[in-house]
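Margin note: ligand = nicotinamide-adenine-dinucleotide.
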Amino acid sequence: MDIQSNLDAVCDILLAANSVCSLTGAGISAESGIPTFRGKDGLWKTYRAEQLATPAAFIQDPRLVWEWYDWRRGIIASKEPNDGHKVLTEWETLFPNFALITQNIDGIHQRAGSKNVIELHGNIWKLRCTAENTITENHEVPLKESPPHCEACGALLRPHVVWFGESLDASILQHSFQLCATCDVVFLIGTSAVVQPAASLPLSAAERGAKIIEINPDPTPLTGIADFSFQAKSGEFLPVLNEELKKRLYK
Ligand code: NAD
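Resulting structure:
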């Protein structure tokens, strides 16, 4: 099928859908200028993300890990939402039931205007006390104190993000699986689909017959189960799909 026929088919599916889920990953923020983990810009100094985003790295050298997060916060703060993020904000009102589940920690979906964002891996603008688990928001760029400490008890603060080897918040994960267990369509946008358990969410939907639509310039381990795979940048493709959709909705 050519692209237009695929677009037509996807629009038909979406117009008939009662509920739509979208699982986003670092790729949706790539066109905003925020580096992905698995890509040519994924390195910081000589470190790979997998060497820094771990509890062991933080215990060994909290200053180094915070230096990396401070660098990432600086990049994110200087970037803007792109057209892909903006389309997903519209979909909150376009579809009767729309869920936005993200692996991203950058908070850009919210900055774009999405109101209901399910953050599987936390948020880089939140800090958590290593002693009391209290969470505070902090938007300093750069951090005034690095590594930062809890104002209340003096313990070290850590980024409120899920590191490699850590478990996700059980209620957020359960909620996400429930959404995928009841939706008609799952969009996979800008995720390499190798980080678990996030990568299993679409599988649970596909098993029930929900349609899987992938948008990613490169194939992923989930491309094989996708009903439609658009090898494109999300910031370019989503606006095209959105226009097609609105033409049909408002004609
Ligand atoms: P990933 O880095 O593993 O993969 C990024 C994917 O995006 C790749 O498959 C790549 O082909 C695709 N991609 C690149 N440019 C794209 C574009 N313009 N449009 C669509 N897709 C594009 O990211 P992941 O799957 O999200 O998983 C890794 C972990 O990385 C997650 O836990 C996430 O928290 C973390 N992470 C988050 C951010 C962020 O918040 N912006 C940035 C880097 C990493």
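The domain at 40-78+141-161 is CATH 3.30.1600.10 (SIR2/SIRT2 'Small Domain').
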